[in-house]
Design goal:
Layout lengths: L2 H9 L9 H6 L6 H8 L1 H9 L10 E6 L2 E6 L2 E2 L1 H5 L12 E6 L5 E5 H17 L7 E5 L4 H13 L2 E4 L6 H11 L3 E5 L2 E3 L2 E3 L1 H9 L7 E5 L14 E3 H6 L10 E2 L3 E7 L7 E6 L1 H14 L7 E4 L6 H13 L3 E5 L10 H9 L3 E4 L1 H10 L2 H4 L8 E4 L6 H11 L5 E4 L34 E4 L11 E6 L9 E2 L3 H9 L6 E9 L5 E6 L3 E4 L2 E4 H9 L4 E11 L3 E10 L7 H12 L8 E4 L13 H8 L14 H11 L4
Parallel strand pairs: 4-17, 6-7, 6-8, 8-11, 11-12, 16-17, 16-18, 18-19, 19-20, 29-30
Antiparallel strand pairs: 1-2, 3-13, 4-5, 9-10, 14-15, 15-23, 21-22, 22-24, 24-25, 26-27, 28-29
Helix pairs in contact: 3-4, 6-7, 8-9, 11-12, 14-16, 20-21
The protein binds 5'-O-[(S)-butoxy(hydroxy)phosphoryl]adenosine (WT7).
């Protein structure tokens, strides 16, 4: 289906689903007046939400807004680890499961809030012993083990800033991020289980450290033992040994609401990843509030977000939001198809999961595997189903609703970004009538709009740029060491308004429909990649003269990476395979191009600009538009011939 056909199909979507009766009657957000109240007095609304946390010192002012720089809960002091762990240990939640963990090989652990408190305090003391103090940056490069959450919380306990690097990133990508943040410590593990094989995390760290002089120590958790390559790291300390020597008493550091909590790197429109900066008070209020209301979290619920903690979804909705709310959060180490394709459904059955949150690409994979897989397990505990990461096509939405939710569950399609920190456009399960494919409405207190190029509001049904028109507590504060880029990239297109980079439209009923990125950012299986980043990786190869990368439509992954490459004359051999491998080494396996096309020349305008739009048309087999502005129109005809010759 072409892009235009897909958008037409979306426009014709007329199905709608009112909140299931049993959710509606018992929902935490059950008063529709919440939207109006928050809209009339957003600061009052967030102030009320802020009181759900424990503050060591109350704030003087809810919001200080000097566009584009915001400060929330100014003057307030709090500690994130204390809010996520300690305060639950003084009441009936002390022996409640904080984390239910399942390893890929099948091992299981249940960690209560009381146990988590002791682990976090010990780990925090271990960090202090390694010389880490408030404001220092700590890189965390781990798999999905409870110790990853413990490491993050230990940093927040002493005021250190963590930067978690997704375990699927390569040594080079890791090194680049360690250096940008100038980390003094790397916390890692020997290896992680993934589809029955070991991801050699520690070995990658060894390689990354070759060019990372700021790192003084490494703290290494032993997960797979002899199955991992045995290497020794700079200033290495064993996690278990270090913790065993520490006391379980560690007073939490009082932090200013605006002190930095973490940096998370994400792809932008250039080759250099951006270090998105989130701060302490506003972020925690934002993620705790949205987690409670969007997922209608009740105290007895078992909640499972199946994302990776290495992405923002895991930061906000596996670790910080759920733990701030005293929830039971499930962490699963491995892939959904190990050992069988019913793994997720078995996990839901085993622990009685009530709330399940995943990505459209995963849902489409489940669709491909067939309804017989979820039918093997008892999914009757489920009440709320979430989706995040890319637009969910109505077909996948309906499949999710019917085959996983058995028609009984509320489906919440949640739109947000690394930069927004928290869910921004979303249904509320007890209040919103959903339309499959629409993320519905801005969360209470959030204001969004769709603008045309001139900055005017577009009418119902018309497409435009999605902007956020009011500050929100979990918003990014800056790009680490690059405030100028922060201002330019997000706040200069429409002054005073935050540019999301997404296209959207609002229908006649006021529902938001997300249409994907409008810039050079791709979304491949829910992972954000920049075209430029992959182009840089390709031209880094000695045989490549020039490269252009685009995201083409893919039924499963949303988008796939298509690369158009001009080789140097001297190149020979199977360059396709070699270049794919090269990109995987430079960035990580997630960035490996799906297609590589070789061409003597790239289609360029007479001023030398690569016509990415034309490449996208070619890759998606569309009728080509106007090519007369090209320096050499023949280039396109030749490329199109090559592409059309390939099986779909
Ligand atoms: C981009 C942000 C937010 C956590 C995961 C991704 C796309 C995200 C949706 C949705 C349509 C969505 C947008 C956004 N996106 N959720 N529900 N509907 N698009 O975080 O890597 O920062 O990517 O993901 O294009 O800009 P991220």
């Amino acid at each position: 289906m072409s892009e235009a056909d897909r958008l037409d199909a979306l426009l014709q979507e007329t199905r709608s689903f009112p909140p299931p009766a049993y959710v509606r009657t018992g929902a935490i957000a059950s008063d529709p007046g919440i939207y109006r109240r928050a809209d009339l007095d957003p600061e009052g609304f967030w102030s009320e939400m802020g009181t759900a946390l424990h503050w060591m010192r109350p704030w003087d002012r809810v919001l200080q807004w000097d566009p584009p720089h915001a400060q929330w809960f100014v003057g307030g002091e709090l500690n994130v680890a204390e809010n996520c762990v300690d305060r639950h240990c003084v009441g009936p939640r002390r022996n409640k499961a904080a984390i239910i963990w399942e390893g890929e090989p099948g091992d299981q652990r249940v960690i209560t809030y009381g146990q988590l408190q002791r682990d976090v305090a010990r780990a925090a003391n271990a960090l202090r012993r390694l010389g880490i103090t408030k404001g220092d940056r700590v890189a965390i490069y781990m798999g999905m083990v409870p110790e990853l959450a413990v490491a993050m919380l230990a940093c927040t306990r002493i005021g250190a800033v963590h930067t978690v690097i997704f375990g699927g990133f390569s040594a080079e990508a890791l090194r680049e991020r360690i250096n940008d943040a100038r980390c003094r410590l790397v916390i890692t593990q020997d290896g992680a289980w993934r589809r029955g094989r070991v991801v050699p995390l520690k070995q990658n760290v060894e390689e990354a450290l070759l060019g990372a002089p700021s790192v003084e120590h490494t703290l290494v958790y032993r997960r797979v033992g002899a199955a991992a390559p045995q290497v020794a790291l700079r200033g290495e300390v064993d996690w278990d040994e270090a913790l065993a020597h520490e006391s379980a008493v560690c007073p939490p550091e009082p932090m200013q609401a605006e002190d930095m909590l973490y940096i998370l790197y994400t792809s932008g429109t250039t080759g250099k990843p951006k270090g998105i900066v989130h701060t302490t008070g506003g972020y925690l209020v934002g993620v705790a509030t949205t987690h409670r209301l969007v997922f209608d979290l009740h105290d007895s619920d078992v909640y499972w977000c199946a994302a990776d903690i290495g992405w923002v979804t895991g930061h906000s909705y596996i670790v910080y939001g759920p733990l701030a709310n005293g929830a039971t959060t499930v962490i699963y180490e491995g892939t959904p198809d190990f050992p069988e394709r019913d793994r997720h459904w078995r996990i839901i059955e085993r622990y009685g999961v009530n709330i399940y949150y995943t990505a459209p690409t995963t849902i489409r994979t489940f669709m491909r595997w067939g309804p017989q897989e979820p039918a093997k397990a008892d999914l009757s505990s489920l009440r709320i189903l979430g989706s995040v990461g890319e637009p969910i096509n109505p077909e996948a939405w309906i499949w999710y609703h019917e085959n996983i939710g058995k028609g009984r569950c509320a489906v919440v399609d949640t739109w947000w970004q690394t930069e927004t920190g928290m869910i921004m456009i979303t249904p509320l399960p007890g209040l919103t009538t959903t339309k499959p494919g629409s993320a519905t409405h801005p969360f209470p207190g959030v204001a969004a709009a769709v603008l045309d190029e001139a900055g005017n509001l577009v009418g119902p049904g018309a497409g435009g740029n999605l902007v956020l028109t009011r500050p929100w507590p979990a918003m990014m504060r800056t790009i680490f060491n690059d405030d100028e880029r922060f201002v330019r990239q997000y706040w200069s297109r429409y002054p005073g308004k935050y540019l999301t980079g997404d296209g959207a439209r609002v229908d006649a009923d006021g529902y938001f429909w997300l249409l994907g990125r409008v810039d050079d950012v791709m979304n491949v299986a829910g992972h954000r990649l920049s075209t430029y980043e992959i182009e840089s990786a390709l031209v880094d190869h000695p045989a490549v003269a020039e490269a252009a990368v685009i995201g083409r439509h893919d039924d499963l992954k949303g988008q796939a990476v298509a690369a158009f490459v001009t080789l140097k004359e001297s190149a020979s051999g199977d360059m396709g395979a070699e270049l794919k491998a090269h990109v995987a080494v430079k960035i990580g396996p997630i960035a490996r191009p799906d297609d590589i096309f070789f061409t003597a020349e790239l289609p360029k305008t007479r001023s030398g600009k690569i016509m990415r739009r034309l490449l996208r048309d070619i890759a998606e087999r569309r009728v080509l538009g106007d090519t007369t502005t090209l320096a050499d129109p023949n280039v396109v005809a030749m490329l199109k011939q090559q592409y059309d010759g390939v099986e779909e």
